[in-house]
From TrEMBL, chains A, B:
Domain Aminoacyl-transfer RNA synthetases class-II family profile: residue ranges: 245-588
The encoding gene: GRS1
Gene3D superfamilies found in the cross-reference section: 3.30.40.230, 3.30.720.200, Anticodon-binding domain, Bira Bifunctional Protein, Domain 2
Species the sequence originates in: Coemansia spiralis
Protein name: glycine--tRNA ligase
Reaction(s) catalysed by this chain's protein: 2 ATP + H(+) = P(1),P(4)-bis(5'-adenosyl) tetraphosphate + diphosphate
One GO biological process term: mitochondrial glycyl-tRNA aminoacylation
InterPro entries cross-referenced by the UniProt entry: aa-tRNA-synth_II, aa-tRNA-synth_II/BPL/LPL, Anticodon-bd, Anticodon-bd_dom_sf, Gly-tRNA_synthase/POLG2, GlyRS-like_core, tRNA-synt_gly
Length: 713, 713
């Protein structure tokens, strides 16, 4: 296949605009394009943080563990870093996020959901480039052998030195000018790395050194192994825990490796993303879609990355659930048939141009305008940004803590033509939770070239395409015998030659009676003489009925664990005036348990109506949880189920036996109403399925006096 | 912990009743307990097959591939044995099986669903016994190095020889007596292995040899490595493909191995079952359940087994989705609170006693009676058998092709106290699709002992338990100084000593003024002298308020892929009189697509109402598929969507523009009705959610004349 303009664009190494603008460019090692960046969009957007959320993270973490949302895996075996188990609450929350995702994307968009193997033969991931390049740089302590990520090491040590400088200047009473002074704001969440950077020594730095450090930290993701090695040497960076020197950074592939079958000869990796499984099935999927374009495949499943340094709970883990869409589109027409449905939606966009101007406040822009103005590359990308936005709003992410950040030119995978991340703000900073990239034809072309299987679309032209073209045909009787083994490569070369070159050969043949063809990079490199009897070069009228092209791929890729963690932070609340009572204000659609069923007390007469209510809810598809622990007061039981984020509670009390009524309590308002069991069960079903709201219920039912029932004593 | 009676029972090596009864016991190597059996319930129940189903498997396989239910993974890379990708139809079918499973088990039974890590550190799987014993025996061809499962090899070669004998006798015109003749019926589906056993040589065997072979084949799962090695030597078994000798069988662990983290020092395995992740979280789960027993945890997820010889499509694969329940129960009371709800249900049971009598016809028995008579060990096991039955009926497994087979005493995992498999009959024979085992306290005890973390239940007695007991207390002032380092082990030994032994020591001390204690298997083995000043042995009244016990675990374990494959076979149909037209008669609840939406033809006016109908269905949670390919006739489009098993089809035609009506077609009957779009959309929702039936719809709406619409031309 000749290199098309579109393909060349995907391979283009984009000039680093940010670096080019920096006045410091000559003073520090110039960052090369990072290795991992080329193949991964999985980056914590830490350095984009501009302020911290006011959340009591210790209280949240403790509640997460206490109510078993998640916990480190194998904790009775002292746990394994980067592996987490979801408990009943977390697993249900995750499952609900996935169900809504399926409804929102797969069903409503009629995507072809597939479920492919996790274990992947090395050949596939060699072709996709992961074996060579899906890696981070790693250093070893030269004495104790402990291992660290090279970029994290440099980052931590330089940050510690900057902090030491602040300390030294404070102690010396030097005022800190905004121009030359050290900037803790350059890395506002630097404090979480403090421990790793070693003890802070109060050592004043030269102003020029401070500038260097600041520049390096802002660019830390861009250094390759040699770049990091140079920094380590230049600044004598050592393992802060031991003071020992470290080895030069070596590449550490982030895929878990295994071996398939009993012979041990077939190397396999656990997939680092679900995308490749979809790409290798492209032809079957196109066939399944009756050859119609555009269309999308989708997959929800586990992926694996053997992180050198997992951290921050669910935010950088070794095993995670992701949901990915691969939308296949004609590279010459990236319009989306349903774009008009979303064009009016306003999104908080942070385009690369705005970032390059040093700003970090998103701009509210209608997605229709963003595509029209070229801020977002095409309709399909824009359509998905809007759909991602609607999904995140539907699950309960806070609007004001969400932004869509465009990748900087130097930040994109080399094959990507445009890429936007949905970033959600948490107490850890802005977290990349959904990536939405235009992967161009990169993957399909790679797999097709390697396997020699066509992964392309054949479309009939509405009218046959007639072109007039200079073509070269060989005279097999002379051509073959003269060129022997080189005949085939030379013929292929001639067939692919641009028209101008062919014209040159044509005129050479008629002028000199011969022409020379030079092959290189083939199995038959060399110079070959062509004579007029061997070829016919002439203008032909060619009628094409079918157009063949490799689709481009627009890929929205969701990190379910990161969305889940962000949602926990955004839903975490404490009762006004009683900070001990925390609760999660999950929407009913995502809440792990929809309805709590409980008796007023341990009185024996409550058991039967209680089980009856629970059974009716469950049979109606409403996950209900009974809390009949007689030892806990009703208030305490309400409180501990508020901690699970259960939105509704039905209470059986003494009146139930008399008149068959029960009470219904809502979590956020703690208000209660009373009605017949039948009516309350139906109401809960409607509330959970979203066909009514609590406000609506309150407008039709009088409040019950609950002055004492929410008392925890 | 002292070895309790219950625990001892779990460890008991059950005497092999079948072997003991065989008159051939002295003539062939006695099978030892197989290795894999101890840890795996994943066995194809091939040798239980008594007849084949009449199904055109080639037609089924071709439809499965054509409509992308599943296909071998990475097929453009020539595929990997034992790995499969589910396409849009298969993935949706699988997802629906899982959704129904969640509704049926997790929600209706209020189970605690968790989602744990696949990557598991070696330590955990060493403790559970998998590292040592989750293995098959493997032979290598001594010349070409090809690898085969030892039991499969022996099986294939002996079967080929038996077939050769039949051939020889036929050629010799010898009549085959039922007593001494070779029995193809001993292995009715032997033919599928024919190729593997090598070419059939017409060689007559001695009658005694035939008996030996038959006996060995019936017992093939029971041979260990040495047993298989002996068979290979004795019968000169070679690789049938090459005629070369094979190596002695070596153990091949079936877990995929990897390494966690950058240091390479932490070995990990991909989990072979989801159970261990649940067990190690037992304490958190009990806490989450407010300490109440009994309760169950559950998990749906991927597991991995690096099979030596994957085969038969989805039936023996290397990566599979399973759904497992771990129900924790008091070992002294295995009653189930909801047993009365299922006691009346009749199940097709095949108890071990019936199998030992050589019969294979299940007995229809009410589960209440089966538990009362001791056929099924306890109520909880019986409750789950009934619930499994209801689930399999609900998804569409045919009642007459289902049986519950009890494990034979020699077939159970050594820790299991009772085990039943739900086996589904397919054209491959009876397939174990759900295992339901009482795992006793095995796993929790193992993990607790190794980690020294308590994995047990503490329950207050309703009344304090008062016991009178002989106890031994040490006098620390004398005991320690005298015994020094041995003091602690000797003290522990004395504390755990049964009352009779303690009485003996007491009388020795008073008689001889000393007694000797012998320790073995401790860190301080040896003989130690005890004198009366060192200990006080006397009767005490002990009041216990809390009972501490390790729960037993009842485990229903579902192979989703196997159920899915069985369902494909049970749902596969051809139209009477037109065998080219096949379809899947899936129930709406499991069907991959619920409703097809299509225009009568490619007429432009159909586009808008078509999209309108599709959008309304999808927004209502009904996965709808549009088939508007103008090139295919309406009949052809009905037919190809019947192949997907889509139960309903809404057709937009010329009348739609006039009066807003559309037609609704049902797949199995191919009958159609007509009504307004609003009404039809609502009807489809009701049909899909199960709130009405097609018969009911037909009783209220007149049929539309469809004489031509189901014509494929």
């Amino acid at each position: 296949m000749p290199v098309t303009a579109q393909f060349a664009r995907a391979y283009r190494i984009t000039f680093n605009a940010l670096t080019a603008r920096s006045p410091l460019i000559t003073r520090v090692p110039l960052p090369a394009t990072s290795v991992r960046r080329l193949y991964s969009t999985d980056r914590l957007a830490e350095n984009m943080t501009d302020s911290n959320l006011s959340i009591d993270r210790a209280a949240l973490d403790s509640l997460v563990l206490k109510r078993f949302f998640y916990a480190q895996s194998f904790s009775i075996y002292n746990g394994v870093a980067g592996l987490y188990d979801f408990g009943p609450t977390g697993a249900a929350l995750q499952q609900n996020l996935i169900s809504l995702w399926r409804q929102h994307f797969v069903i409503e968009e009629d995507m072809l959901e597939v479920d492919c193997s996790i274990m992947t033969p090395a050949e596939v991931l060699k072709t996709s480039g992961h074996v060579e390049k899906f890696a981070d740089w790693m250093c070893k302590d030269t004495k104790d052998g402990s291992v660290m990520r090279a970029d994290h090491l440099v980052e931590a040590v330089l940050e510690a030195r900057l902090e030491g400088d602040i300390l030294a200047r404070k102690m010396a009473g030097v005022s800190i000018s905004s121009e030359a002074g050290p900037s803790a704001a350059a890395k506002p969440d630097a404090k979480k790395n403090k421990k790793k950077g070693g003890p802070i020594a109060a050592t004043k730095l030269e102003n020029s050194v401070i500038e260097e450090f600041k520049f390096i930290l802002a660019q830390i993701d861009n250094y390759d192994g040699q770049g990091l090695a140079d920094l380590i040497t230049k600044y004598d960076i050592r393992n802060p825990d031991t003071g020992n020197p470290v080895t030069a950074p070596a590449m550490f592939n982030l895929m878990f490796e295994s071996s398939i079958g009993p012979s041990g000869n077939l190397k396999g990796y656990l997939r680092p993303e679900t995308a490749q499984g979809q790409f290798v099935n492209f032809s079957r999927l196109l066939e399944f879609n009756n050859q119609k374009m555009p269309f999308a495949s989708a997959m929800v499943g586990r992926s694996f990355r053997n992180e050198i340094a997992p951290r921050q709970g669910l935010l950088r883990v070794r095993e995670f659930t992701m949901a990915e869409v691969e939308h296949y589109v004609d590279p010459e027409n990236k319009d989306h048939p349903r774009f008009s449905e979303v064009a009016h939606i306003e999104l908080p966009l942070l385009p690369s141009q705005v970032q390059l101007e040093g700003k970090s406040t998103p701009i509210m822009m209608r997605i229709g305008d963003a595509v029209a103005s070229g801020t977002v590359d095409n309709q399909t990308l824009g359509y998905f940004l809007a759909r991602i936005y609607l999904y995140l709003m539907a699950v309960g992410i806070k609007h004001e803590l969400l932004r869509f950040r465009q990748h900087l030119p130097n930040e994109m995978a080399h094959y990507a033509t445009d890429c936007w991340d949905a970033e959600i703000k948490t107490s850890h900073g802005w977290i990349e939770c959904v990536g939405c990239a235009d992967r161009s034809a990169y993957d399909l072309t790679k797999h097709a070239t390697y396997t020699k299987e066509k992964l392309c679309v054949r479309e009939s032209y509405p009218e046959p395409l007639v072109t007039v073209k200079l073509v070269c045909e060989t005279n097999s009787k002379v051509f073959g015998p003269k060129l022997k083994r080189a005949a085939k490569p030379v013929e292929e070369y001639l067939k692919l030659l641009p028209e101008t070159d062919l014209t040159a050969i044509q005129s050479k043949l008629s002028k000199d009676g011969k022409a020379t063809v030079v092959l290189s990079g083939t199995a038959a490199d060399g110079e070959y003489e062509i004579t007029p009897d061997m070829v016919t070069i002439e203008t032909r009228t060619i009628t094409e009925h079918v157009r063949e092209y490799t689709p481009n791929v627009i890929e929205p890729s969701f990190g379910i664990g990161r969305i889940l963690y962000s949602l926990l932070e955004h839903s975490f609340n404490v009762r006004a005036g009683d900070e001990q009572r925390s609760f999660f204000s999950f929407k009913p659609a995502v809440a792990p348990f929809k309805c709590l069923v409980l008796p007023l007390s341990g009185h024996a007469s409550f058991a039967k109506p209680l089980q009856d209510v629970a059974r009716r809810l469950r049979a109606g598809g409403v996950p209900a949880r009974v809390d009949d622990a007689a030892s806990a007061s009703i208030g305490r039981r309400y409180a501990r189920n508020d901690e699970l984020g259960t939105p509704f509670a039905i209470t059986v009390d003494f009146q139930t036996a008399d008149d068959g009524t029960v009470t219904l309590r809502e979590r956020d308002t703690t208000k209660q109403i009373r009605a017949s069991t039948d009516e309350i069960v139906e109401l809960v079903k409607c509330l959970v399925h979203g066909s009514t709201t609590w406000d609506n219920v309150l407008s039709k039912h009088p409040l019950v006096n609950t002055s004492s029932s929410d008392n925890m004593d």
